[in-house]
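Sample pair:
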Amino acid sequence: MKDFKQLIAQRRSHRKFTEEPIAADDVKLLMRAALMSPTSKNQRSWQFIVVDDKLLIEKLSDAKEFGSQFLKNAPLGIVVLGDSETNDCWVEDGSIAAFSMQLQAEDIGLCSCWIQIRDRFLSDGTNAEDVVKGILDIPERLRVLCIVAFGHPTEQRNLQNEEKLKWEQVSIDRYGE
C-alpha cells in the first residue's frame, strides 16, 4: 500500500480509459474493498453489480443526459445499490463502499469516476434509476445510488493542489470559529 497521504492526494477522477480489460484479481480487490467498508449498524444492506459486458456498459452510459457518457469507454462499471426499505442509511453506506473501491483502484494503479444516478433524470423526465433498473433487471425494492467507472488511465493526473484546499471551510467547536 502507498502512503495514505500520497494516495489521497493522487486520487483524481478520470473519464478516459485505455481499452485494456481489468484483471479478475483486481476486480476481486475492488469488491473486497466495498464489502469490507463500514455500514450503519453493520447492516451491509448494499449490493453491487459488476458490469464488464460492453453492450450493457454502453446502454448504462445513456442512463442520464449528462455525466455518464464516458462510461461507454470504460472496461468496467460497478453499480452500487441499496435497500431503502431495510436501511435508512443506504445512501451513506453505498457512498462509503463506492469510495472504498475508488481508493482501492488508485492503490493498484487503476483509475475511476463516480457517476451519480440517484435523483438524476433524462430530459424527458425519465428517472435514471429506472433506466438502470430496466437494463440490469434490478428489483423494485432496491435503489441505485451510482455507477463507478473503472479502467486503466490514459494519462497521469497532477496531484491535488494543497494550496487550493479551503481551510476557511473548517470550523473548530462552533461554526465560523
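Residues 90-107 form the longest helix (18 residues).
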